Amino acid sequence: MHPFLSIGRRQFLRQSGLGLGVAPLIADALSTEPARPEQKSAGAAANSTALTMRATFESKPPIWIVREPNSGFQQQLASRELARGLRNLGLAREPLQAVAGQGQPPAASLVFTFSTSRQSIRNPESYEISNESARGKPLRLNFTGATQQAILYSVFDFLERQGAFFGLDGEVYPLDPASALNLPPSGHSWQAQPRFNTRGLAPWPDFLNCVTVYNREDWRAYLEAMVRMRFNTLGVHVYSGTNQWTEPFLSFDYAGAGHQGFIDTTATNRWGYLPEPTSRYGMGGADFFGGEIFGTEAATQARGPWEAREMAQRLWSEAYGYANKLGIRTGVGFEPYQVPDEIFAATPPEARRPDDPKNAGPRVNPESVAAKDILETRLGNLLEAYPMVDHVWLWEDEGANWASQKESVPLSTTPFKQAYDFLKRHAPQKRMVISGWGGVVRHFEYFHKNLPEDVVFSALSDTLGWDPIIEVFGKLEGRDRWPIPWLEDDPAMWLPQFHVDRFVRDMNLAEQYGCQGLMGIHWRHRIMDVNAGFQSANSWDKGVAPTQFFQRFAGAQARAPRASALAKILEDTDRDRLILCTWTGKIKKDGHAETNAFSGDYGEAFAFWEDHVPSDSVVKSQAEVGQQLRALTDAASSSAEHERLNYLTRFVEFLTPYSESWTLAHNLHIQLQKANDLKKQNKAAEARQMILTEGVPLWLKMAPKVREVFLQYQEIVSTREDQGQLASMHNKYERLALYRLRASMKEFLEELPPEVERSFADLRQADSKAAPRAFVPTRPTMLGKGEQVRISVVVPGAAKVVSAKLFTRARETQAWMSTPMTLVQRRTFAAELQWRESSGPLLDYYVAAEVEANGARKIITAPLEAPHRFYSITRA
Q: Closest Cα partner for 462 from 506, 418, 507, 432?
């Protein structure tokens, strides 16, 4: 890593005299105002009104960020992240970096100081931010942490208090520069201690909209977002079951046999996907993909299962190593009861359980010698592939969970005891975590009595998180417990999901039950920023209520007065479930929430043949929410504000045509069933007439709704996860609605009416009016010395793309340098962003694409309003 600049006294004074790289700033006058409810100052009386100091910026003293001598990576990163944040807030361009003891800042300068103190702060992640400024004197702000990691967290907390929002998709800063800093009052520091020592995420690696499709740059950006959100734990589950669905991230050999490694791409057939080249996507969908196969390069470039294993494990190994560097603990694991078909075929018959289609348990007897050999082989391979992980997760398999909701399914402790003993012998520093779907908690009290206390118990919440965290967690005293609520659920995977109100309940229950940790399962990113952002904030401060949180989120997305209106719309939508979601609002006789799947990405998703349709009340309320959001979006005062608002608006707006298309397809399905019954009764002519007069009009009414959904969603696709969702929707929604239902009607009509075929051809055409735009799906934010990272840009729209360039600069005082980007395929371009030597803490970049339409050329940029707005790399 490139060391931070150590400035001697002479250079220190010379640079401060020049005031290099400093925007108008000063704290000549300090005023006070009531603090936000979640920002109570330490030491204030419980019933008093805490005061918050604000520094107004009127003149131009330099800003100094002073760290401790011999500080490590985390503190060095903290100083540069603070510089990054102050500049993003519009308060300073490039604050000067310095080391304590190597010069004294001039009296007129504004100084931020870092220090560690384990004596005064016991919790290793706790910190305080104190204001040592005298009234009328320049700012002196101290960040004191129990550890260097705590100092890093304190910086992100401080920036959030200034209006920054940190989400899964990265950082979002208010659209307008701040006019002042929000500061703790003198003598009343801001103090923070996490509610949960383990705060993390469980990104699920399946489908096309998540870490399954990640490449190196995607993992880096995700982990950089995690540390800014002050998450400290990453846990990943790997499937290793039947039907050749075993993923190569934890591949292993046994008894002379290996197995296929399966990673989901647009060319595979798991989770309801059917192989389909992206070039066949209708309505312009192909333009969003830079090749015929969308997925991780570990799958698309591998020439066989061994190469897929090598590439996949190398990718994840680098990601886990990078996570550890950022202070994020990592864990990975598998389902010990489940083995690949190929491995099962290699086991001795004496070790297999009798074939029974009703058997929901393991096929290999867990008490057998073969089961132990397989388990230890898998554990050994895990440790060899990922020696840096902190946790080894063992999961009750998913099938056993669903079966256990209907009848008792035994779960032997033998594999867990064997795994524990193996880890104690070969990797005693690793902790074992037992986890599973909600059903696994039925075994926790028994396990608690029979397994060592240093084994962590964890579980997903039942019924996709609509059921509360299960009370058995409160009966496991003496043991670490990490419940896993659902940030989103896969039966509503294409839909926007707001679950802040639900998370308040779950996080309070987790604390009430004495849980030391809490993790959130998710797939997507940007549309999950609300839920994950609340999990992050409330994991530190119980006082962050939904109202305050939505105000904070909205304040980073829109300008006043639209921000307050947006906050209320989102809070009402979440609390009152005003948009289509999985829960029906009813509780079944078994005590579980009743759910309906409307876009279950674990299957064919657009399952219109299921026995439910969106309710009239939800259809009405979600349309009203969409109208309210559209009014805010149309009133946006800039293109950047419009883009942020339009992302949320389009997600909600497409629910209306999607719900209508579901109901129409469902009604068409009913007609097809009736026609099929007539055909079985040798009444083919009547069946044909029914489909012609009843079915065809339904399809003709439904098909334009499908196009409407796609054109609205494609207008806002902006991340790699969005691209994955788009691929899923084309493969399932477009295919089922526009292809399969036509094929079903054709079974009765033999030849489809000309109007159906004309409509099909017209509806699949690209939107000739689609405005050209550019988006960078993945935006890495940190680079070490000598590193480089790939930047890609996609330029969809009706215009022809002439070229794309990557613009970079190492300091704000330097001119932008351009680098041509290489065409990958269609409308996707890529270039390598390389470390550049500079004394500054940041490296800025943006992308500009030249497009041509109707003989005229124009430049479009990502981000919008570049070069006034741009992306940044922290030079770590």
A: 506
